[in-house]
Design a protein that fits this description.
The structure holds 2 protein chains of 2 kinds. By secondary structure, chain A is an all-alpha fold. Chain A is built from 15 helices and no strands. Classes of the chains: A mainly alpha, B alpha+beta. The interface between A and B is large, with 40 and 45 residues.
């Protein structure tokens, strides 16, 4: 009896495949297919508005009416616009101070939450509340807290404790309004920073701390030489996000001050909206919005590259 | 924002009762009408309407509006959903709808809005012509806001006037029988009110109604204007500088915090007994009068109204906050929209609404002078003729894209606020306003 090995090789006909099945078996096609929805969303909702916004910045388009190309005319006008420069300066100031405070307090909160605490999960959930409450709701709450006539803070200081004679003009004085807005932003942003850094803290191996303690390291030394370096990668990412969120903040300012008093708290985003939508000058509004891009790119690169240096964290040089 | 349906409107209940008690439920005065043939608006099959309009400041406004819309639905089968939008968000929403060509079928926005995008609305000549002929004609300012180039691009449905709202007992305590009719006397009164611990307060935040109203009055009363008759920007003038100096002196008498006030802020402070005087619509009086709280009712007794004082120009220079209905070009149901507006403006619906508002929204059609709302309570009288003798936004030029944009960008408010808060001298602020306004109007 002949074995199968002796028989000539029989080539079985391949099962008939539809064009779709064949296409799905083709790796490049499959990759393209899988990427298409995401690419489509990115192009439609991200790239197109961005490119269209940049185009508008070089036109005199108004709401409901197409415009003509005007070159740098919008920017020339903004260059001489005191309100614009106030908004640029205040946006940078707001971002720097709010971010520093959010990171200082957020890191402190994360370190506290990293300790063994009773009802730790519940406390962590509560901490997140300011961040998950819709911004407009918290902004309205702050609007009342800062009200010149009905502020709860003023009420306590004046009517309950008697520490002041007059109510605090939180939103009427430019500097009071600015610090009030920074406080509201910090209150809202701390949970995001704290929870992200807490996640980073929990990835640090306890053995590092144990070894350091055996070597006699003080708590400060353990923090500075173990916690901080190990936390840097996540710190860099969170910082980059935080800078972007803060720099592009809109809702808090729009709901609490609408850019007042006397335009002193307009961020670039709110001023862009004010000019483009309320003032119907889409071209000029877009120019303000586009002017935010270089600041954002610089801030993000600085935040990311200054902090995300792996070699330094592992004892190498910073080259 | 609350999206009211007809069914929900029925449930407004308790609040409605007090509003109706104010007059909407009572027998109406006979509104004189002419015998004019009604235009024919054949309603499209399956029509339904969405209306965007400003949120209420007096409850009767909303209650009667919804009742009338319900009556229209019952009469025609056209369901009407009304979105009540906050005042400051109304302009951006309308702008976006006009720009993208999608949104509410009817937008009742501020009078200047339709001049910002006249190409996005359907002309209303037939409807406005009919109503004007039937109801004794439109007030001059209603025509000014509704028309562009002689065509009706929108239709005024009401206007709120900024008048002096004051506590009579405190004004008398300051040594005055009533509010002086000249600006110097007015400043004197405000100083004395402050000295007595009952300061005045006028909004200096980006308040669509109150902020624009009093800062426009301030500049106009001293002879300043954003533009001249041929739309040349002239805000940087000695008259404006004088107005700003006066405004700064007036501001020094204000209660603290007015720099951040929005439209509702002076209402709250006045009703809390912290203000001796402000400029506002009749809503403060309405809130006190309809309250069941005896303290509020006592306050209502002490609230009086007066016209804003006359400055060196020797004429009244008040601004009206006009609400104009626009039928948007993108609507699928233009006839239903026009039929709805006609229905709402007919005396059977409009007069009860006017009474329920106690004149908060003033009538644009002259025949409604005969409404009982103007004789029921002498305190309504100061608001009777808002659209008869007010000045318009963009005075003394034309209404159009530029005047609308200047107003919406708060150029006048910011100019006054920057002087009052000490950020700029009057000369610097006027120069900056000139620069901003020229961005919209163009350089001469």
């Amino acid at each position: 009896m002949a074995t199968t090995a002796d028989q000539p090789a029989v080539r079985l006909p391949a099962p008939s495949q539809s064009w779709l099945a064949r296409a799905l078996d083709h790796k490049p096609t499959l990759i393209l297919l899988c990427l298409t929805p995401a690419l489509g969303l990115l192009i439609v909702f991200l790239s197109f508005p961005l490119i269209f916004g940049i185009y508008l910045a070089f036109t005199d388009t108004r709401l409901g009416r197409p415009g003509e190309f005007v070159g740098l005319e919008n920017y020339a006008s903004l260059f001489a616009d005191r309100t614009f420069w106030t908004a640029v300066w205040w946006t940078c100031f707001y971002t720097v101070f709010a971010t520093v405070l959010k990171f200082g307090l957020g890191l402190w909160l994360a370190l506290l939450l990293n300790h063994k605490l009773p009802m730790k999960s519940l406390i962590r959930a509560i901490i997140l509340v300011p961040w998950i409450v819709p911004t407009v709701l918290s902004a309205i709450a702050f609007w009342w807290i800062y009200d010149p006539q009905f502020s709860i803070i003023s009420y306590v200081l004046v009517d309950v404790l008697g520490w002041r004679e007059t109510y605090i003009n939180f939103l009427g004085d430019p500097w009071n309004a600015r610090w009030s807005l920074i406080a509201a932003n910090v209150w809202r942003g701390i949970p995001f920073v704290a929870i992200c850094l807490l996640a980073g803290l929990q990835t640090i191996s306890p053995s590092l701390y144990e070894a350091a303690m055996l070597d006699g390291a003080t708590p400060w030394q353990r923090f500075w030489h173990i916690t901080m370096p190990m936390l840097m990668p996540i710190l860099a990412v969170v910082l980059a996000f935080s800078v972007i969120f803060t720099f592009t903040d809109f809702q808090l300012i729009y709901a609490i001050t609408r850019g007042g008093p006397a335009n002193s708290t307009h961020l670039m985003a709110t001023l862009a909206f004010q000019r483009a939508v309320n003032g119907a000058q889409l071209g000029e509004g877009s120019a303000i919005a586009v002017a935010m891009i270089p600041f954002l790119v610089c801030a993000t690169f600085v935040a990311y590259f200054a902090l995300a240096r792996r070699k330094w964290q592992q004892g190498g040089s910073d080259d | 924002m609350k999206n009211w349906t007809r069914r929900e409107s029925v449930a407004l209940g308790v609040g409605a009762a007090s509003a109706l008690a104010l007059g909407a439920g009572r027998a109406r005065a006979e509104i004189p009408t002419a015998d004019v043939a009604s235009p024919n608006f054949p309603i499209e099959s399956g029509a339904k309407l969405t209306v965007l309009r400003p949120s209420k400041f007096v409850l009767g406004d909303e209650v009667l509006w919804l009742e009338n819309a319900k009556k229209f639905a019952e009469a025609t089968g056209v369901e009407v959903d009304t979105d009540f939008e906050s005042w400051t968000d109304l302009t951006p929403k309308a702008a976006v709808a006009a720009s993208i060509g999608s949104g509410p079928d009817i937008i009742c926005g501020w009078g200047h809005i339709s001049h910002q995008y006249p190409d996005a609305v359907i002309p209303l000549d037939d409807l406005a012509g009919y109503l004007g002929a039937k109801y004794g004609g439109w007030w001059p300012m209603a025509e000014k806001y509704g028309q562009q180039g002689g065509k009706w691009i929108s239709m005024p449905i009401g206007a709120s006037g900024g008048r002096v709202v004051y506590r009579k007992s405190w004004v008398e305590e300051a040594g005055f029988d009533t509010v002086p009719t000249d600006t110097e006397g007015f400043l004197d009164l405000c100083r004395k009110l402050k000295a007595n611990g009952h300061p005045p307060g006028l909004a200096l935040g980006n308040a669509e109604g109150d902020g624009n109203a009093w800062t426009s009055w301030l500049v106009w009363s001293h002879g300043g204007a954003m533009v001249d008759e041929v739309d040349r920007v002239i805000i940087n003038s000695p008259e404006t500088v004088e107005a700003l100096k006066y405004g700064k002196a007036l501001y020094e008498t204000f209660i603290q915090g007015t720099e951040s006030w929005l439209d509702a802020s002076n209402n709250k402070a006045f009703l809390a007994g912290q203000l001796g005087l402000t400029q506002n619509g009749i809503s403060i009086y309405y809130a006190a009068k309809t309250s069941e709280d005896p303290a509020m009712q006592a306050l209502a007794e002490d609230i009086f109204h007066a016209r804003m004082p006359i400055g060196p120009v020797d004429i009244t220079t008040e601004r009206s906050l006009t609400v104009n209905a626009m039928v948007m070009k993108y609507t699928e149901y233009p006839n239903a929209a026009m039929a709805f507006l006609q229905f709402m403006m007919e005396a059977e619906q409009y007069d009860p609404w006017l009474n329920a508002c106690i004149g908060y929204w003033n009538h644009p059609l002259q025949a409604y002078d005969a409404s009982k709302v103007w004789t029921d309570d002498p305190k309504h009288d100061a608001y009777k003729h808002v659209l008869k003798d007010a000045l318009w936004d963009g005075y003394s030029g034309s209404l159009g894209e530029a005047s609308s944009a200047v107003l919406a960008d708060f150029v006048m408010v910011e100019m006054v606020a920057s002087v009052c808060t000490g950020r700029s001298t009057p000369e610097e602020a006027a120069a900056e306003a000139q620069r901003r306004a020229e961005r919209y109007y163009g350089k001469a």
